[in-house]
Design a protein that fits this description.
heterodimer; A: mainly alpha; two-stranded antiparallel ribbon; 8 helices; 2 strands; globular; B: mainly alpha; 0% strand
């Protein structure tokens, strides 16, 4: 129990302000967290788009006028999302079909765009790439965990392989309502652990 | 288009496949807009006009410009471009011609490009191969569904703000759980046979 608590506290300590905003931008990706592989795939796509846009805007920011930067970031997101979409449909067409419109919707993830627009554009190349990669991988881990829980208890399988002999224990989790509830409880757990960690070491 | 198609589209978009509750589209916008009733209505109006115009436009561009030339992969870029031009152009036009409207609506403008329900509606209309008028109706009813969800949510939110909720649930988590419970209520509509 204490190991889990420690892990949660560590996770909570990493959830600083920017990451709380990233949690919110996971909302649209929630729709495809009913199977483990879908959650991992959308997380990796988000990471790729985020890293490439951060690197590009970090290189371009001195040449793009302030007024046009937001538009540039929006277009960069659209371009790289299209690229990710094309790559995935070439390599793993069935995975691409499973993600449906939620892969192109990465182009509208608000907090990520705001972060790239305001923070990554002022960073040199290397820190921009590193930070965005870390953020993306953290989101992938969160999405993977969420989809593992939803798939295991919602449909009784892990990545398609049956685990429970009989029917799934909590069918609600595979429904959209279950996704909302589980995500809400998980964030509450992380926030609670972070608050407990802060109380311990003032 | 028969009356029956229209009613089916409306009931599906409002209740059976509500963007917010069954597809997780525009969740962020619903939570952000729930600061005031005014902001909810502004978002709803902007979304109805924007999606009602963009969905058929993108559909036509797709059918007559992209498909014949085998450029389907540009769909996302075209959708984002059309939305950007319509929202920014519309804002500029309103600022010059209808300053009253502009003052009332421009607070909702920054939320437009990052509202997944708007881009999602355009992409869905395209994916389901709707005709241009059907796409317009799909967009408008989808936006009304979003407005319905946002109105239901703000009603609950006002009570949550006054309730004594545990510290770690305050803010985003309790909002998500509220949406989950509302979504469970909407699950009651599944399996409804229209005709």
């Amino acid at each position: 129990m204490s190991a889990i608590r420690k892990w949660l506290e560590d996770l909570g300590a990493t959830v600083k302000k920017p990451t709380a905003a990233f949690l919110m931008s996971m909302c649209a990706a929630l729709a495809v967290t009913t199977r483990l592989q879908d959650g991992v795939a959308i997380g990796l796509c988000i990471t790729v788009v985020l890293v490439l846009s951060s690197l590009t805007i970090s290189l371009l920011s001195s040449r793009v006028p302030e007024k046009l930067r937001e538009v540039t970031v929006l277009l960069l997101f659209a371009v790289y999302t299209t690229a990710a979409d094309m790559l995935l449909s070439a390599w793993l067409p069935s995975q691409n079909d499973a993600l449906g419109i939620f892969l192109p919707l990465i182009a509208a993830s608000g907090s990520l765009i705001a972060w790239v627009d305001r923070t990554a554009s002022r960073m040199p190349l290397r820190p921009a790439g590193l930070q965005s990669a870390l953020t993306g991988l953290r989101m992938t881990a969160a999405l993977a965990g969420l989809s593992l829980l939803r798939e295991l208890f919602g449909s009784g399988t892990v990545a398609g392989f049956p685990v429970f002999a009989s029917t799934a224990p909590v069918r609600l989790l595979s429904q959209p309502a279950g996704g909302f509830l589980l995500f809400g409880f998980l964030i509450a757990a992380v926030q609670g652990a972070a608050a407990a960690g802060r109380r311990k070491k003032p | 288009m028969s009356v029956r198609t229209v009613v089916t589209l409306a009931l599906t978009a409002l209740f059976l496949e509500n963007f917010v509750f069954t597809r997780f589209l525009g969740v962020r916008a619903v939570i952000d807009a729930s600061r005031s009733l005014r902001l909810v209505f502004m978002n709803g109006v902007v979304m109805i006009v924007l999606v009602g115009a963009a969905a058929p436009l993108v559909r036509l561009l797709d059918e007559y410009l992209l498909m014949p030339r085998g450029l389907e992969y540009l769909r996302l870029l075209v959708s984002v471009g059309v939305l950007m031009i319509l929202s920014m152009g519309g804002e500029e036009l309103m600022r010059r011609r209808l300053p009253g409207f502009y003052d009332a609506l421009h607070a909702a403008q920054p939320m437009v490009m990052t509202n997944t329900a708007i881009l999602g509606a355009v992409l869905l209309a395209n994916q389901e191969n709707l005709s241009a008028p059907q796409a317009a109706l799909f967009g408008i009813f989808g936006a009304l569904g979003f407005l319905l969800a946002a109105l239901l949510f703000i009603g609950v939110r006002e009570r949550i703000d006054m309730a004594d909720c545990p510290g770690s649930f305050r803010g985003f988590p309790i909002a998500l759980i509220t949406l989950g419970l509302l979504s469970m209520a909407f699950m009651g509509f599944t399996g409804l046979r229209l005709w």
